[in-house]
Write a structure and sequence with these properties.
Distance between the termini: 38 Å
Number of helices: 7
Helix content: 10-25%
Structural class: alpha+beta
Shape: globular
């Protein structure tokens, strides 16, 4: 009998097969803790009835980067997914060890996002990377990996991707954030391992480690839905918010570093336009003597910044993206803030359901 090409095939994750039109919460065995307690990686699969792409969404590859956990939780609650074509595979906590310990790293201090594609006989990081590649990534056609800034560093919501690859660039523009950064593929990263399998993958950066940032979370949920619409996994009518601006591509970024140690007073916010005359911050000793003004050497947009007021000489203070038309980008950032920050009637604890 000839197969129905309009029907999405079943997908097998681990020992579980999810049939078309079904949902399943799957726990992939990772390892036993030294307490002999088994540790699993949670995977949620929604397999649509009708044929379409298979999209993976991963979060907490760095265990202290938590915005993605909440983005995936809200995404899975949306009624729109009842009309899904294709398959959504969501992994809210890839680095379960790091999440448990509030740590970026694995217990052996390895960075999971420098351990892909991994091997089943290597280190803990290598084995975890291999598990994700084998059971999730290799079975999908597209991907979105969600990150935040490191501890004590906050990032403006933006997409990092290989913008020279046509399909990846198309999805990056569809996501709907003001800035797209053309980022090199790093050795051992999930993006590099995915690209070697010819799976276009976006990296969404927003917010700060160990914190929920409401604007970043709402922009992330909306961005994922925009990508799913672009892929034809969801209906394209009634497009979600903040798509009126055209994303601007940044081909280079740089860090402005502290010229001296001291007390930092910041004068610019994320998404703000800066020039060589813009005062980014002032650094002084605790008595206010020996003040030094920090400026940007180039025209650009503040993409990331430290949130610590105590700095040492050489610390990264501001991450600046060199972009064309930075004024337009700053205006788009303001628009994004207006559209994603909650109304007074909204509850952040029990947010309005996306329909």
């Amino acid at each position: 009998m000839e197969k129905d090409k309009s029907r999405q095939p079943a997908i097998k994750i681990g020992d579980f097969e999810v049939a078309p039109g079904k949902r399943s919460n799957i726990n992939l065995p990772v390892a036993d803790l030294y307490t002999h307690t088994p540790l699993d990686m949670p995977v949620y699969v929604i397999n649509g009835k009708h044929a379409g792409p298979r999209l993976f969404i991963t979060a907490a590859i760095h265990g202290d980067e938590l915005n993605g956990v909440e983005i995936i939780r809200r995404l899975l609650r949306t009624k729109l997914l009842n009309r899904l074509k294709g398959t959504l595979v969501a992994v809210p906590m890839v680095n379960v060890f790091g999440v448990l310990n509030h740590s970026r790293y694995l217990p052996d201090r390895r960075d999971l996002n420098r351990s892909f594609p991994g091997t089943g006989k290597g280190s803990m990081a290598s084995r975890l990377a291999s598990l994700l590649m084998r059971e999730v990534v290799s079975k999908c056609t597209h991907g979105i990996d969600i990150h935040t800034g490191a501890i004590h560093r906050s990032n403006l919501p933006h997409i990092r991707a290989n913008l020279d690859e046509e399909e990846t660039a198309r999805l990056a523009r569809a996501f709907g954030v003001p800035v797209l950064v053309n980022a090199n593929l790093r050795d051992g990263s999930l993006r590099l391992a995915s690209s070697e399998l010819e799976i276009p993958t976006l990296l969404y950066e927003a917010g700060e480690a160990l914190r929920f940032d409401e604007m970043s979370i709402r922009a992330g949920v909306t961005g994922v839905l925009n990508v799913m619409r672009e892929l034809g996994m969801l209906p394209k009518h009634a497009m979600t918010k903040h798509r009126s601006h055209t994303p601007v591509e940044a081909r280079s970024t740089f860090w402005v570093r502290s010229p001296q140690g001291g007390i930092l007073r910041t004068h610019v916010r994320l998404g703000e336009k800066v020039t060589s005359e813009t005062r980014l911050a002032t650094i002084s000793d605790p008595f206010g003597d020996n003040e030094q003004i920090v400026t940007s050497p180039y025209l650009g947009i503040v993409l990331g910044r430290t949130s610590l007021p105590l700095v040492n000489e050489g610390d990264g203070l501001f991450h600046i993206a060199r972009v064309p038309k930075p004024t337009a980008v700053a205006e788009a950032v303001e628009q994004l803030e207006e559209e994603t920050l909650p109304e007074e009637s909204d509850s952040i604890i029990d947010e309005p359901e996306i329909k």
